[in-house]
Amino acid sequence: MALLRFFFALMAAFAFGLPAMALEHGCRPEMAEGRPRIIPASLSEKELRISFVGHASFLIETPQNVKAVTDYNDYVRAEVVPDIATMNKAHSTHYSRNPEAGITHLLPGWNPRGGRADHDVTLLDLRVRNVSTNIRTWDGGHTEFDGNSIFIFELGDFCVVHLGHLHHTLEPAHIRAIGRADIVLVPVDSGFTMDIEGMMEVLEKLSPRIVIPMHFFGPHTLEKFIRIGSEKYIIDRREKPTGVFSRESLPDRPTMVVMPGR
Length: 262
Known about the structure:
Blueprint: H1 2-15, E1 47-54, E2 57-61, E3 67-69, E4 84-87, E5 105-108, E6 120-123, E7 126-136, E8 143-155, E9 158-162, H2 172-178, E10 183-187, H3 196-206, E11 210-214, H4 218-229, E12 234-237, E13 242-246, E14 255-258
Parallel strand pairs: 3-4, 4-5, 9-10, 10-11, 11-14, 12-14
Antiparallel strand pairs: 1-2, 1-13, 2-3, 6-7, 7-8, 8-9
């Protein structure tokens, strides 16, 4: 089994062009290997369940039991092995060097061979596609073109947009490529991605009915975003890090759904 885990880790490193570095001892936490598959209550054909796993990772579940995880990484993982896993390149907490066996589509938001990543996959009732964005280099002084992606999750005409590790405002071409944005999962760290003003400008252009904050570092950064966002959004604080959403149940007024999470 240890040899098998090493094989998957080595293949992932070569396949996705990840930075060369020594693999951690043990490859990944042993507790990740034996996690039970949780079968949730059924969803109607137009509903999505969205659960905040932590940092920038969400578990998105469909009526046909397709499971997708955003910014899949080796540090914070869902309780199930996803069918579709998206990743972003900005930091190691946004991608995996040790992907689990059983993932049908593992989608890096960058192209390890250079150029733009181009994903458009459909598994049963869930379509996942990407729109490339640029990122700052590690030293912060240069731009890595097409280094990351915004991922769009579609159940019919119901669309959830995960902004990833977005480092710049969006041009009209980005907005057209993204298309409909019913729910936007937005990083609110105020600096590692973008400042709050820039992120609010992005949300203004996308015009979602629901925004769900992610990628915050402690309550201070989260509450700062909520305070500024409350000028436009109704604040809906949830006690649990999960919710069921559909296009038909979208609120009349723009709403910020705040889920507890790591």
